[in-house]
Amino acid sequence: MDKEDSGFLRRKRINSLFFILVVLSVFSNVPVSAEVLTLSEGLRLAKENNRLIKIAQRDESVSEQDTLIAKAKMLPDINAALDQTFLVRQPNAVFGSQVLPISEKDFFSYSLNIEQTLYDFRKNASHYEATKALFNTKRLDEKRVRNFVALDFGLNYFDLLEAEKMILVAEKEVDRLESHLGDAKNLYDEGVITKNDLLQAEVRISDAKQRLFTARNLRAVTASRLNNVLVRPLNTNVEVTDTYIKELKGLSADILSLDIEKAWENAERQRPEIQIADETMRALELERISKKADYYPKFFVRGSYDYMENRFQTPNGNLSLIVGLGINLFSGGSTKAEVQKIDHQKLRLLEEKNNLMDGIKLELEKSILDSKSARERMAVTRDAVQQAEENLRINRVKYEDGVGTATDVLDAVTLLTVAESNYYRSVYDLSRAEAAVLYSMGIELSEVYK
User: Fewer CB within 10 A of the terminal residue: the chain, N end or C end?
Assistant: First the structure.
């Protein structure tokens, strides 16, 4: 095979490889339709993957180990020692005129000691119960974080649904204006209108397209926020559905019939934040009992076995049992200061709890009022959309017949766009307000939006 043929075959192989790479690159860029993410499925994913929940779970695990550390102080303390001693000189004892060895120069020894507190006026027991109460606060905090993440996901989910509806409204506005521009061109060609009508319609179309671009950008940003809650790549394609609205028809009615005083009572009973404050108060009281126990003695029993290799001594090993008590006579006033410190912490926590409850009441009342307002706006704007559609139809007919003006048509398009936007905003304002009411009352959102 000559050089010309070999070069031809080489170029052919290179071209074939290039063609394959091009085909692969084309198919790799083909958009894949995203799986529809339902509200319940999204809440499940957020519960499994969200970093705030994982951080709360780690805090819970740390607190659980604190309970084990506190429990260990109530169990026997066992210590063992093993020694090999090397002396420079052998120990001796003087008996009159005689010097006798009393120990080996090099010897082996070991010991085993067991000590158990018999009674310490509940110092260790109270501390252990306090750590269990604090551990319970971490479990409640994880519950709070889970519901907060569920609320965050739900609000972003409703924001995304609203953003999609705003895109739909903007697209309809562009279509209506382009349809009007087509009618205007026909009338202009017939000599019925001036060119000013065409220019006016083109300017309105340009403005509507800008709003459409803005709506699409807002949808992309909202989708990224939703992916962030789910701990997914921000550019992951997200498709959502609002079928849940039909499934939760009774929810709005239940919220409308809520008695505000009853709702406050439910919130005080169910909100994890209030339960955390109560458990923390109990933990402080137990810590106070533990600190006050330092004023009193501690009774203990200690047993030990000691062995030392020594042929000059008998016996080499011996058992001992000690029953005793220990008391701190003076600590510089630290015990009194620690007890008073806990008293101040309890008073501070009580004020924080009252302030928290006031905030929850205000939050709950606002959410209920928002839901009622959104429901009323939804009923009003639904009728307004129908009226705006009829208004646009009449003005179009009048314009085509040469009776109406282009300004009337353009104003009717704008009026319909505003009515549709207000309607969809009221729909999702209602959804957001309902979720906020449930959260304020301490109800698990993942259980409601199953």
Answer: N
- Strand ranges of the sheet holding 317-326, from the earlier edge strand across to the other edge: 77-86, 106-119, 298-308, 317-326
State both tokens at 34: 């995203």
What is the C-alpha to C-alpha distance for residues 413 and 409, in angstroms, rounded to an integer? 6
Question: pTM value?
Answer: 0.82
Q: Which fold has domain 34-77+122-296+341-448?
A: Outer membrane efflux proteins (OEP) (1.20.1600)
What pLDDT digit, counting tens, does each position of 262-305 carry?
A: 889 889 999 999 999 999 999 999 999 999 999 999 999 999 99
CA 43 to chain centre: 11
* Residue 105: CA count within 13 A, CB half-sphere: 3
- Cα 15 to Cα 7, 11, 20, 28, 329, distances in angstroms: 12, 6, 9, 20, 95
Tokens representing 203? 């300017």
Q: Give the contacts of 410 (CB within 8 A, at least 6 positions apart).
A: 177, 180, 200, 201, 204
Q: CA 20, CA 18: separation in Å to the nearest integer? A: 5
How far apart are alpha carbons 96 and 175 in whole angstroms? Answer: 124
Tens digits of per-residue pLDDT, 14-36?
A: 445 444 443 344 344 434 456 78
Distance separating alpha carbons of residues 398 and 393, to the nearest angstrom: 9
